[in-house]
Amino acid sequence: MDQPSGRSFMQVLCEKYSPENFPYRRGPGMGVHVPATPQGSPMKDRLNLPSVLVLNSCGITCAGDENEIAAFCAHVFELDLSDNKLEDWHEVSKIVSNVPHLEFLNLSSNPLSLSVLERSCAGSFAGVRKLVLNNSKASWETVHTILQELPDLEELFLCLNDYETVSCSPVCCQSLKLLHITDNNLQDWTEIRKLGIMFPSLDTLILANNNLTTIEESEDSLARLFPNLRSINLHKSGLHCWEDIDKLNSFPKLEEVKLLGIPLLQSYTTEERRKLLIARLPSITKLNGSIVADGEREDSERFFIRYYMELPEEEVPFRYHELVTKYGKLEPLAVVDLRPQSSAKVEVHFQDKVEEMSIRLDQTVAELKKHLKTVVQLSTSNMLLFYLDQEAPFGPEEMKYSSRALHSYGIRDGDKIYVEPRMK
Questions:
Q1: Which residues of 329-363 are buried (b: 16+ CB within 10 A; e: fewer)?
Q2: Which of 12-21, 119-128, 360-369, 372-381 has the lowest mean pLDDT?
Q3: How far is residue 276 from each of residues 101, 314, 349, 385, measured CA to CA in Å?
Q4: Into how many domains does the chain fold?
Q5: Which domain holds residue 239?
Q6: Tens digit of each residue's pLDDT (9 = 90 or more) over 170-183
Q7: Are residues 348 and 213 in the same domain?
């Protein structure tokens, strides 16, 4: 059901968190807020407001009474206003400026590209540490204004904003640790390197679902661009050569990499993908969300050596030589045939006679008896068979079930089968 248009933040707040819709609850982030002002407010003592307000998809277009917002939101530190109809930054500023302890603000899917964010408005965001602008189509000019006015900003979300390029800010943002910029159209590495220039303290860079095709940068330059990068997500990017993977080693603090769904890995098996990536990235401790244990690293590096050992010298990657120095030249793994044995050479004992025979192990005991009729000159109904495993400590086992397959006895070359006539 569509929400009515033209609703204010304060109107929605009063409706959602009224005692009828939001009864008092105990627990983290919950509690009744009793403001000291304004005196005589009809809302006073009535609202049961948590410190985390979720007002998404409520049709909000404006702030409403700022005094009421200040009175009831003094304790709020998280505010979700996603998927509303806020298109004027001035209205957002009226809300935020009256929530003095706000640290997290989600403005995703509001049409905020329709207005210009002035620095005076952006100043009201000064205390925000986590800002979400996904699918807001916020321009880079807006982002730059925010960066200049939010000195403590640590996490910024700019997904689904149709960015094809990155515009450098006139000032660096030293505080930002996490940048989430997935689902855009950033294809050229020259655009990604601008992010390193703008955010030198970046710890986590999430670039999934962009069309980045290659990493065109020298190793020294990469180390200077992202000196503090610990985690990078390149899921479903366009990387298609191993040289790009090797360049990730240039980030001096990199520990975690996500690389699912890239063209480079499509022709490899699941095992090959993981082991070859681990072997090429010696410093990472987590790959695609899974911890890389010491034992798995050693297995992967040994796998890497054997994977490339048959190639001509000119086709062997440099990492191969590093690992040979570490482990030495390895022998190829022995090929072990785990298929069940199809036949066995056994000794058939009957009275004083011994005959060596090759028998099929897929046949049943009844079929073996038919095969032995001409050898022992007994009818199948008058024949008892006993199987002796050459290593068995308990003596012969009677083969009493006619429909049982011979392979189920574990018969091997050198075992013995004794034939005796049935006593009448």
A1: eeeeeeeeeeeeeeebebebbbeeeeeeeebebeb
A2: 12-21
A3: 48, 19, 55, 54
A4: 2
A5: 7-26+46-327
A6: 889 999 999 999 99
A7: no
